[in-house]
Write a structure and sequence with these properties.
- The chain is mostly helical and 232 residues long.
- Helix content is 70%, strand content 0%.
- 27% of the residues are buried.
Amino acid sequence: MSVLDPPVERHLGFNDALHPDRSWIRALRIAVGIVVLAALVRKTYDATLPGNDVDIAQLYSEFTVQSNLALGLVLVASAALPRTRLPDWWDRLFGALALYLVMTGLIYVVLVAPPGEPWWSLDMYWPQLVHHRVAPLFAALDWLLVTRTVRGTWRRPLVWLGYPAAFLVFSWLRGAIDGWYVYDFLDPTLDGGWPAALTTTAQVLVAFLFVAVLLHVAGNARAALAVRHERR
């Protein structure tokens, strides 16, 4: 036995303990997935109440709602099925959702939150708390910690940006048709017009790309760690 054996055993134990088929990880995923979907059900119900300023069609046009819906479904599916029954691209999907949820949390704090609301505040409508605080944190931790073996190329961050880019086009087309823009920073009819909207949107896309690259590198590092110790 060499002096390297104990550290290797610890790494193997670490990877095994965080394997996606571990019962505690599957239980945590399904619990968070159900809470995320329950929050969406509550938002949907509230959108039907008289006097609500957002209808169901507008609600499901929000990036927050779309990304949380996808995350909730993916978490439940990941808990219900063993990893061997899921396709190789499943891990890449997790990375994309981690990006979208992290950016959901950041954009809410920087651009969407009511003026004066502290970024650390937990005093909010509970579905908002779930979708803007709990889900982003869980998605990031799942991506960074759970054992993965699939590594992505440098094209992966750009592929992840496909959905946000399509969302922007959809939002502007919808706004041009019915005059409703999902977020104020996308609205060219407000002060500053198109220059202000395009400038803020460009900044948001740069932030998306920056975070996407960080998550890509972190995901590859996590996969490399797992593969390296599986081969020993």
